Amino acid sequence: MRSTFKGLLALAIACPASSAWSATLDSVKKNDVLTCGTNSATAGFSLPDNEGKWTGFVVDYCRAVAAAVLGDAQKVKFIPLTPKDRFTALQSGEIDILAHNATWTSSRDTSLGILFAGTYFYDGQGFMVHKTENVTSAKGLDGASICVTQGTTTELNLADYFRSQSIKYTTVGFADEEAVVKAYEEGRCDVLSADTSTLNASRLRMANPDDSVVLPELISKEPLGPAVRQGDDQWFNVAKWTLYVMVAAEEYGVTSKNVDAMKSSDNPSIRRLLGVEGSIGKDIGLGDDWPVQVIKQVGNYGEVFDRNIGKDSPLKMERGMNALWNKGGVQYAPPIR
Amino acid sequence: MSDLSLPAPSRRSLSLHDKKVRGVFYQLLLAGGLLALVLGIGMQTASNMRIRGIPLSFDFWNEAAGFDINQTLIPYDALSTYGQAFWVGVVNTLYVSVLAILLATLLGFVVGVARLSQNWIVSKVATSYVEVVRNVPLLLQLLFWYNAVLKPLPPPKASIAIPGGIYLNNRGLIVPEIQLHSGAGLVGLAFVAAILCCILFWFHARSVQRQTGKQLPVLLISLVTLIGFPLIIFLAAGEPVSFVAPQLKGFNFQGGHQLYPEFAALLIGLSVYTGSYIAEIVRSGIQAVPKGQTEAAYALGLAPGKTLRLVVVPQALRIIIPPLTSQYLNLIKNSSLAVFIGYPDLVQIFAGTVLNQTGAAVQVMAITLSVYLVISIATSLAMNACNRHFAIVER
Question: SS in 3 state form for A173-232?
């Protein structure tokens, strides 16, 4: 709410000189810091650690953008946002980029004045129930109370799904993800519904993670991705290609460890990716070594995935749909040339 | 002595040396400046929004909302429009505010009088309540009622059964559903008729007392009429009203009416908090009535209860009502804290979900602010009318 008001204030008093949003890249360079809106607290995705340093999957994406633009992955200011406030914060210019677990939809792309710049995580909405209820399918949820986060696609999918199945249910909505999980844990709701990534992350934070079970049904497609303001094509490209560079690096086997050695690779694709050949930096308005900085300081897509939410993390999520296209998934970067 | 006469009116010109003209001039200047500022901000916002591609229109109003709301007093489902969702929010806000105002006023008057009680325990209990509640932030109190009192209640399968088919659990209070059969309307009519009879009888009793000094047993006769008359019709019509007890089926009770813990926590929190302020207002109002008034009433032979009711309270009301108005306004505005405990009020539904789904931040916030403004001004006007009614009439 506070963020909404701040956003409105910014809309009201911003001077007309900043008219077209064509200069996000310049302003980020000038301020020497990237302002990034993220989830307030979702384990594995965006969470401050014991020392107050932000870590997580979407946090690392922000760091990658900072490495690309400023050459330093640490030059990021994180603004935690609730789902309710996130788009207003982006619209009004309070943040430079939104790296939230926000679902890319047609209406958000066309009516909010923002653009999604790709998909860093393919997700779907699922249900988590208390084991004691002995429910094995979402079709058995007749009469259940369901806790959801307000202002998400979750709320809309629920209404669609249960209407099409003619199942009665009641929602209990909170603005804050933590309040939602708490209400479920304390038994106010029978069911917690969210994207499966969030369900798994929430489960980690529960007192008794094994008391809950995730039902097999996925009721929606939830491509989660970063978003930028409309009308700034240069910045849109930076956001989009930072993600693609990370995916391409994984495809070509370039990691944070071997990136320097890879510069002398014979593979033309790798040489173009790392800026040894071609002009990956000039046309986008960045230095030629920007992909190297991204990969060296943050890592390729697979490294970021494994470290935060995959096999090397407490979440232990499968790559699944998020595996590369040539390994059974759908993560695919257009050619870099 | 013609040279001492006042200057002729024709000599007055529109000069800034004239105090009146100067006054009007500065007033106009200020008003114009303010208007220009407001217009400027408005136009600046509109142009900034256009540049950033943020929706400017109110087209979303008639689009399907697509989300569900758990507590609605007016018809609503996921296929309803955003406009309908707005009205659900307005009605929910008014519903909880009106009930909380009634409860807080009741609580405040009882506690305010109790603080002045001669009974040591009663007055100390009232004082402790006021001091504790007044000095803890409202949001914490709401979270306390919701998280520490209502949520730890047992789950549906271990509900606390209250005689009469009522169940209490962490999903709320579930009471039997009232089912009306043919003839139920007659019972309702009988009840309305009984109320009208009571009012007429009260007027009659008052005129009898004014003319003869005799007091008729108004309370007893009213109670008998209010309960007896509808009861006779109820039995005569073959008991057309029945209660269907809620049944535990699957996850929760099916059938019956449900009072949600989110609503209950907000209602209790707002009433208890505002009640403590009203108690202080009532206490100070009563103490502001000169002691001589009470003594005079005793000297005339009025009993203590009647002295309070007929002499002290009517005079105290004049002092109580103006600050009471601001408490009511505060309560209405505080109801927007509902957003923290999941009660679907105007802020949660409209400035929350609708804003997020449509992205129309400026329009939604402007409408939300206007609604609170309208509700507050209406309350203020009503209380001012009430104040005029109780004010001292100069004879």
Answer: EECCHHHHHHHHHCCCCCEEEEEHHHHHHHHHHCCCHHHEEECCCCCCCEEECCEEECCC
Best mutation target among A108, A111, A211 (most B Cβ atoms within 10 Å) is A111
- pLDDT tens for each residue of B308-365: 888 988 889 888 999 999 999 999 999 999 988 989 999 999 998 898 888 888 899 9
Tokens in use for A169? 């249910």
Q: Is B147 on the interface with A (CB under 8 A)?
A: yes
Give residue for tokens 């040894």. Answer: A276
Q: Beta strands A191-195 and A144-149: pairing type?
A: parallel
Let me know: does B274 contact B108? Beta carbons within 8 Å. Answer: yes
Mark A67-93 as b/e (b = at least 16 C-beta within 10 Å).
bbbbbebebbebbbbbbbbbbbbbbbb
Q: Which residues in chain B are closer than 8 Å to A112, comparing Cβ atoms?
A: 53-55, 359
ipTM field = 0.77
Per the CB < 8 A criterion, the answer to whether B230 and B187 are in contact is yes
Q: What pTM was estimated for this model as a whole?
A: 0.80
On whether the CB atoms of residues B302 and B311 are closer than 8 A, the answer is: yes
Say whether both A167 and A131 belong to one domain: yes
Mapped onto helix, strand or coil, the DSSP state of residue A264 is coil
Are A234 and A305 members of one domain? yes
Q: Which CATH number characterizes residue A181's domain?
A: 3.40.190.10
Minimum-distance CB partner of B171 among A111, A145, A231: A145
The domain of A213 spans 125-220
Beta strands in chain B (DSSP E): 160-162, 166-169, 172-175, 177-180, 241-244, 247-249, 252-254, 257-259
A12: which chain B residues are within 8 Å (Cβ-Cβ)?
A: 41, 44-45, 48
- Which of A64, A163, B5 shows the shortest CA–CA distance to A56? A64
- Partners of residue B48 in chain A, C-beta under 8 Å: 11-12, 14, 16
Same domain? For A36 and A93 the reply is yes
Q: What is the pLDDT of residues A91-117, one digit of tens each?
A: 888 999 999 989 999 988 988 889 999
Q: Which domains does chain B have, with CATH numbers?
A: 82-157+259-390 (1.10.3720.10)
Count of CA atoms in the C-beta half-sphere (13 A) of B364? 31
Please tell me which of the candidates B45, B171, B352 has its beta carbon nearest to residue A150: B352
- Of A63, A56, A203, the closest CA to residue A131 belongs to A203
Q: Are the beta carbons of A43 and A106 closer than 8 angstroms?
A: no
CA-based nearest distance A28→chain B, Å:
18
Asked, for residue A326, whether it belongs to a domain, the answer is no
DSSP state of A329: S
